[in-house]
Amino acid sequence: MSQKIQELEILTPDDWHVHLRDGEALSFTVPATARCFARAIIMPNLVPPVVGVAQAEAYRGRILEHVPADSHFEPLMTLYLTDSITPEEINKAAASSVVHACKLYPAGATTNSQSGVSDLAHLDSVFAVMEDVGLPLLIHGEITEAEVDIFDREKQFIEKHLIPIHKKFPKLKIVLEHITTADAVDFVERTSSSVAATITPQHLLFNRNDMLVGGIKPHLYCLPILKAGRHQKALQMAAISGNPKFFLGTDSAPHARNTKEAPCGCAGCYSAPFAIELYATIFEQLGALDRLEGFASRFGAEFYGLPVNQSKIVLQRSEQTLAEKLPYVDESGIVPLAAGSPLHWKLRS
Question: What backbone phi and psi angles, to 5 degrees, belong to 75?
Fold first, then answer.
């Protein structure tokens, strides 16, 4: 039997999809993300949403106030697309030094998406400018019609909307965020190099049985929702494939415990405090620790046209149990992803 690796050194990773929230929450979420990631694409679904460059700059300033003194963490800002966003604002975003992408939420698809796009036809002129200036389009890819089964919404979005968008704007850089299905993996694999996808730790570690069998686990409820085991397996194979079109995006989304354990619980999993350790755990389970650096530290930067980080982090083998609860903005605290589960790696300070 081969001896287990005791220490793993990789280039400092980036998180290409994270929710930090705003206000008091930033004092918890920013240090949690900055502990191991050099950069992160920051989601703009605040209330009100970040729809312009000036708002993005102001939000970035609030984030930077909470970056630990010994960290060089860089927030990469995004704009929230609405029916009324203009090509002029896209040009301003492309000319700015802080906005790195635009986020498309179909209206009503997830947390704070009420201001999202109601008709994608409204955005043709915006997509044309984004394609021309090279500003990536980040997509929460789900159909929102009430009659569509929640487990089919990603697949139908790809068929009804994403394939036509890519055909119409073939050079537009597209990231299909937090993919959850074999259908999404197949779409990304067979399209051009202008299309990529992020994969979360929850969709690699869990499937819908984990969420539903033996009682509902509200802290595994996220959108897009966890899918069947065959889809989980497809995501795992994509993550460890070495294909640069798939890279790390935690979709870490903090919600206080009392808003998750509620009659109408919020969607989102909070993984930031242990994110890279969770990814290392699943990559080791899949026999692919040697593929972690590409997925976590190289492929996203290359897709966005940014330099790969030159600094490094070290993960050490350390058998521990994830905390059941962490401090957050109120006394109920926050329950992290995989709370109470064994964790086999620890970031060396």
Answer: -80, 130
Degrees to nearest 5, angle at CA 90 with 124 and 23 = 120
Q: Active-site residues: which are they?
A: 251
> Distance of CA 45 to CAs 128, 223, 240, Å?
23, 14, 30
Q: Please determine, for residue 113, whether its predicted confidence score (pLDDT) is greater than 80.
A: no
Asked if 303 and 137 touch (Cβ cutoff 8 Å), the reply is no
**Does residue 204 surpass a pLDDT of 70?**
yes
| Predicted pLDDT at 110 | 64
Contacts of range 190-196, beta carbons closer than 8 Å, 24 or more positions apart: 191/166, 192/166, 193/245, 194/166, 194/170, 195/166, 195/245, 196/244, 196/245, 196/246, 196/247, 196/299, 196/303
What's the mean pLDDT in 82-107? 94
Cα 296 to the center of its chain, rounded Å: 12
Task: Return the amino acid letter for 285.
Answer: Q
Token pair 């040697």 is found at 290
The domain made up of 13-310 is a member of CATH 3.20.20.140: yes
104 membership: H or E segment, kind and range: strand 99-104
Cβ atoms within 10 A of the Cβ of 73, count?
19
Domain ranges of the chain: 13-310
What angle in degrees, to the nearest 10, is found between the helix axes of 87-95 and 124-133?
20
